[in-house]
Amino acid sequence: MHKYLALGWLISLLSLPLSASPLIVNIDNPSFRKIVTAVPHFRDQVKQQNSAALASWGQQRLRSLLEFSRLFNTMRGKVYENAELPLQSFRKLGVEVLVRGTLTKGEDKTMLLTLQTFDIKRKTTIIKKTYPDVSRANIDYALRDYGDTVLKTYTRKPGLFFSKIAFVGKRHRKDHKQIYTMDFDGGNLTQLTSTPAHHLSPAWSPDGRYLVYTSFEDGNPDLFIYDQVHEKHSKLSGRAGINSGGHFAHTGDIVAFTGSQRGDTDIFVIDRYGMSRRRLIKGLGLDVDPAFSPDGKWLAFVSGRYGNPHIFRATLNWSMDRVQVTDDKRLTYAGWYNANPAWSPDSRQIAFAGYDRDIDRFDIFLMNADGSNLERMTLNNGDNENPSWSPNGMLLVFFSTRTPQRKRKGAAQLYLMNRDGSMQRKLSTGLHTAQTPRWSNNIHPKAQ
Question: CA torsion, points 170, 174, 176, 182, in degrees to nearest 10?
Fold first, then answer.
């Protein structure tokens, strides 16, 4: 746990009474529009060395966090950044939400950061929090915490500013593929593997402590697990043949993966200590790409039992920590090849990659958990694969080989889009290639 968090925060959270009209913003409503927001310059009442720079950086960082959420339209320009402008003037400018920050000096002479969010139409303070002992080294924790509080207040969904993305990358074209992690916005890039072999298919445990991945470092596709607390890699499944594509169950104790036995490729499960390996799903043809639903009711997977690979959904029955499949059904019928199923956080939708033979492209699609309401999220922009949901279900990360020329495919890079397919934009990693992203849950450092 970060030492700053161990100090304890002075927190005051004010919200609208239950009798007031709700603040919930429904991003799936066709009439949804971003909330017009102003984040003026933070007031610096400390007036000491570095406080002005800290106030300036804090204002810019908080504004960028709110913009990243795609929920707020943060206005720019001198008039919107005037900290002394009265509320009525902001209202005349069309601002709906005002977020103010103030640096003050505490009794122990350390700096306090107070952040407030005002609903201008209601003339009400929605949120107010004070963070003690702030400095350049720890202010980002306070701003992320506050940003998450704002998101939870307006959407009733989890935040995302303490989440991370794991992915497969190469620094140079001829390098081996390695496992990397980074913050939700591309910051704090960290390389987790380095052996001269390919490493593939990372996936997070629900608590964000562990990552499973596939490695060829011993000459066989073996399943490994990485413990971030102890910074330790260990082999989870190394039987001859395939041990690939691990995915944690909602309990965090069981991993489903693609395994082979006597030449047959099926879905297996194993506990996170490498014990109790057994076959979960056996069918004609290949069964691969397992993905547990967050609520633990289902397992999505890809099967070629009827010819071309399509997505199936197995119904699960849990008895203590043991899981069994009671039945399964085919979900996709359209498309030549469908793969990479990814559950939304509420277990109501599945994003996946589908191959369109007519245009020779993989694209991202979305469907309900029962296979209904199929929607296409990408089109005519290279290959687009391996979608993964943000913790609040508002964004998707995926990789794409798109280039400005459109018809030409380039090196794979990570992209973000809103859950409706809008606002597609590149997530810069600085690497030659970046692919197979997996978004973690929002794990606050206080919980680690």
Answer: -10
